[in-house]
């Protein structure tokens, strides 16, 4: 379960390339354990920021974020890293596979970062995931040899490797054609259900919304902080 | 952190071309100064060892270095010749043992060294197969010559004419190999040793031909006047000395006028050495040199040059390091997205730092190993490289 209360966040002072004036406040945001939620809303409404806060890659100025009974707002950087690697699976719009690793090595990437367990076990787990998504024959291929749909399926496998309790997907279908969009979302929802993971996915595509347990509009979830000119 | 090492290794393996260029640059950067130093030090050790085993060298006035290098290594430009009379005169002093050296000709790429049997005792050279040379026209070959040409006792080796077009000059002489020397890792391994009189035959100062007093030699006789017989060009000269024709070989003129390139002089003690040096100190045509001192002068120059070379290489190395650092920095810039992904998945900044460090470490480790291997090979072949330089 994800529970956010009284959260305030601002990019102010976080660097010249970021929207330095953007800030938002979330009064209450909850996604039940094992539920799948689609986050919709216009560009700049804070969808990606909200995912970053849940994953712990961004830090809130105030308020609390509790993920499966863990108050991640109290974690330091190392604890947040461990939290992400153990409990969070992330799928990105641009797939973000490492071009110098094979497909199966990309799926095993969280293990190369965190270790734990034997390599043989992890390799079997990765192979099983690839089998689930129909890519078992491409386990030794390089990402550049795959279609975009296949790459995103590999990214989903990578996100699922550690059986995450939270699955966050930031516009994972943004670069895909209609057929691949449906396939990837089906895959995400199915994997989340199978693993009893809480799924939060950002999307602009209304044709996909029917696949989720709930749909939340960011304009209802978050309010701009004073001084945010874009809203 | 083994995962970071694995990722680093996979990154380098995937970008083979870039990695190879980096490794090659660093390998050369490490190897060249080390090789220069090793080569110079090994060469210096080898040069001085052989030079120090040779107390004095007597030869014609001129370049001391040429005289010493020709006497020790046989390959350098032949120094001006001296007469065999010098040897006879020197021996009459009784102040030292004198070993003639006549090193001017080649046989199938190997220098022919005309000398006496004393040379083999002096250099402590052992016969590995066959026997010591005993007859005119026989030779002993060094171990490398035997290996390179695939020759052994009983085979023959032919001296090379000095110039193809010099019909009045040196004729090739087919020499029978009496024995092969044990290898001792010196210039002796690459030489063909003959009796000094055989080297004079090669030079054309002695020869063998059909007996002109024999009535059967009529066509070759141009004129007979008193006891003087003049032959024409149809007279067949022997190109090989055999037991059957050895008695037909003879020298024209007095052997005291025959040439030598140098005389190795081995005085029994320092007193005799000093007496000998005094004897030749003011000689206008001869010089008696101490090979060790001559080579020390050469090595001083070599070491000075080496220092400049290493300084130049150090400056080049700095430039190489700067370029390599730039390549790594640019590479990190290009890989910012990749590192960001790793951080987002859950890697710590330390993990990313280890990943980068491992890549740099692998490149430098492989380069260092390659440079060390090349340095070992250089050390192994140092003497051959030195010989090549001396041949030039």
For the secondary structure, the number of strands of chain A is 10
Tell me the radius of gyration of chain B.
Answer: 31 Å
Number of strands of chain B: 16
Q: N-to-C SSE series of chain A?
A: EEEHEEHEHHHHEHEEHE
Describe this entry's structure for a reader.
The complex is a heterodimer of chains A (231) and B (392). Chain A has 231 residues and is of the alpha/beta class. In chain A, 35% of the residues lie in helices and 23% in strands. In chain A, strand 4 (62-67) and strand 5 form a beta hairpin. Chain A has helices spanning 47-55, 77-87, 103-107, 109-114, 119-132, 148-160, 178-195, 218-221; strands at 2-10, 23-31, 36-40, 62-67, 70-71, 88-91, 166-170, 198-202, 214-217, 222-224. The radius of gyration of chain A is 17 Å and the shape is globular. With 392 residues, chain B is an alpha+beta fold. In chain B, 51% of the residues lie in helices and 19% in strands. Chain B has helices at 2-14, 16-52, 64-73, 84-93, 118-122, 143-149, 196-203, 270-281, 291-334, 336-345, 349-380, 382-391, and strands at residues 56-60, 82-83, 97-107, 110-115, 127-130, 138-141, 156-158, 174-181, 192-195, 206-208, 221-225, 228-231, 249-251, 259-260, 262-266, 286-289. In chain B, the strands form 4 sheets. In chain B, strands 1, 3, 4, 5, 6, 7, 8, 9, 15 and 16 form a 10-stranded mixed β-sheet that branches. In chain B, strands 2-14 form a two-stranded antiparallel sheet. A two-stranded antiparallel sheet of chain B has the order 10-13. The longest helix of chain B has 44 residues, at 291-334. The A-B interface holds A 55, 57, 77-78, 81-86, 88, 90, 92, 96, 98-101, 105, 109-115, 158 and B 2-4, 6-7, 10-11, 13-15, 337-338, 341-349, 351.
């Amino acid at each position: 379960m994800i529970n956010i209360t009284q959260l305030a966040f601002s990019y102010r002072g976080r660097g010249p390339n970021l929207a330095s004036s953007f800030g938002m406040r979330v009064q209450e945001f909850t996604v039940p354990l094992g539920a799948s939620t689609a986050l919709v809303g216009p560009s700049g409404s804070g969808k990606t920021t909200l995912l970053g806060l849940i994953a712990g890659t961004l830090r809130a100025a105030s308020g609390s974020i509790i993920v499966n009974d863990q108050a991640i707002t109290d974690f330091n950087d190392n604890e947040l890293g461990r939290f992400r690697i153990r409990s969070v699976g992330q799928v990105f719009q641009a797939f973000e596979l490492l071009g110098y690793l094979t497909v199966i090595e990309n799926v095993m990437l969280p293990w190369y970062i965190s270790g734990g367990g034997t390599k043989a076990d992890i390799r079997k787990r990765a192979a099983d995931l690839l089998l689930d998504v129909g890519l078992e024959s491409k386990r030794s291929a390089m990402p550049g040899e795959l279609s975009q749909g296949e790459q995103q399926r590999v990214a989903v496998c990578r996100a699922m490797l550690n059986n995450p309790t939270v699955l966050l997907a930031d516009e994972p279908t943004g670069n895909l054609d209609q057929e691949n969009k449906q396939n990837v979302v089906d895959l995400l929802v199915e994997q989340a259900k199978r693993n009893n993971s809480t799924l939060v996915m950002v999307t602009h595509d209304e044709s996909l919304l029917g696949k989720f347990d709930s749909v939340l509009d960011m304009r209802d979830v978050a309010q701009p902080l004073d001084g945010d000119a874009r809203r | 952190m083994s995962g970071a090492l694995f990722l680093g290794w996979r990154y380098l393996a995937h970008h083979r071309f870039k990695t190879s260029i980096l490794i090659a640059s660093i390998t050369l950067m490490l190897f060249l100064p080390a090789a220069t130093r090793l080569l110079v030090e090994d060469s210096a050790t080898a040069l001085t060892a052989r030079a120090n085993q040779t107390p004095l060298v007597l030869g014609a006035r001129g370049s001391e270095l040429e005289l010493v290098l020709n006497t020790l290594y046989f390959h350098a430009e032949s120094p001006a010749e001296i007469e065999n009379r010098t040897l006879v005169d020197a021996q009459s002093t009784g102040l030292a043992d004198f070993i003639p050296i006549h090193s001017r000709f080649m046989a199938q790429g190997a220098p022919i060294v005309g000398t006496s049997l004393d040379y083999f005792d002096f250099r402590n050279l052992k016969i590995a197969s066959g026997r010591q040379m005993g007859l005119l026209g026989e030779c002993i070959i060094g171990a490398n010559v035997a290996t390179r040409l695939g020759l052994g006792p009983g085979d023959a080796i032919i001296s090379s004419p000095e110039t193809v077009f010099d019909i009045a000059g040196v004729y090739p002489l087919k020499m029978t190999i009496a024995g092969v020397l044990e290898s001792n890792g010196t210039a002796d391994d690459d030489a063909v040793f003959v009796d000094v009189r055989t080297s004079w035959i090669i030079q054309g100062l002695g020869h063998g031909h059909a007996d002109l007093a024999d009535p059967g030699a009529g066509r070759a006789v141009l004129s007979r006047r008193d006891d003087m017989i003049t032959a024409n060009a149809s007279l067949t000269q022997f190109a090989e000395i055999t037991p059957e024709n050895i008695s037909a070989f003879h020298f024209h003129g007095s052997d005291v006028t025959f040439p030598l390139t140098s005389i190795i002089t081995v005085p029994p003690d320092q007193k005799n050495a000093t007496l000998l040096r005094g004897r030749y100190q003011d000689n206008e045509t001869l010089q008696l040199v101490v090979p060790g001192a001559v080579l020390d002068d050469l090595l001083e120059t070599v070491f000075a040059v080496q220092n400049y070379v290493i300084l130049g290489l150090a400056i080049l190395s700095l430039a190489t390091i700067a370029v390599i650092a730039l390549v790594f920095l640019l590479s990190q810039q290009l890989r910012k997205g990749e590192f960001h992904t790793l951080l987002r998945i859950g890697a710590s900044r330390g993990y990313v730092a280890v990943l980068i460090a491992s890549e740099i470490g692998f490149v430098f480790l492989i380069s260092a190993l390659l440079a060390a291997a090349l340095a070992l090979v250089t050390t192994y072949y140092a003497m051959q490289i030195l010989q090549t330089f001396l041949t030039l």
